[in-house]
Structure formats: C-alpha cells, structure tokens
Task: structure prediction
Amino acid sequence: MESSNPHLFFVFVLLGSSFVVSQRPQQQTTASQQRTTRGDMQMGGKVAKFGIFSPAVYAAKFALGSDKLNKLRGKGISLHSQAIGDFCTWSGAYHLRTRLIKKAKTNGDILGFLV
Result:
C-alpha cells in the first residue's frame, strides 16, 4: 500500500528526531563545576537558594545583625517544629512528624528563608 503523500515520510522523520535527541546522555555536573551565584550563602553545608523572601531576610540581617537574626530564626524554627509535632499528635500521624519537618525545611529553602 503506497502513501498518497510522499512528504509524509519527512514529517515522520522530523517528528521522530526529538526522540533521538532525548536519547543522548545528559551531562553530569559535579560539585567542583557548580559555582555559587549572587545571593547564595552556605547554610548547613549546602548553598541556600535565593527565593521570594530572601530580600526580607537580608534586610532583617542588616537591621538586626547576624546573631540576633539567627536567634530569631532558631526560635521560629523551634515553634514551627513544635506546631508540626502537635498537629501530628492531634491527627494521630506522629510517624509523619520527621517527614513534615524535613518538608518544611525544604520549602523554607525554596522560599528563601534560609539565606
């Protein structure tokens, strides 16, 4: 059975070319190849991300100083962890407490609270 449109073959080849490209191995970057960008700081051995709340954190660091900001940040993290623990106890899902606290830390990093 012959195709009525000879250009149909080229359409299939062009559409299929993205599949071939996606089969290439991805280039792996190592820690030595990564570089920090403006606004990235070390936090707990990892580079903190610059998020939407990062300018407010920098302003608080300038206004309060690093020591006072770290004490305030520690108090906030402690209160939040306690609230997560209370919620897990109340809901009967205390086994999820550690996962929820780790998720809160990840979200705080993404939003820029940990710069």
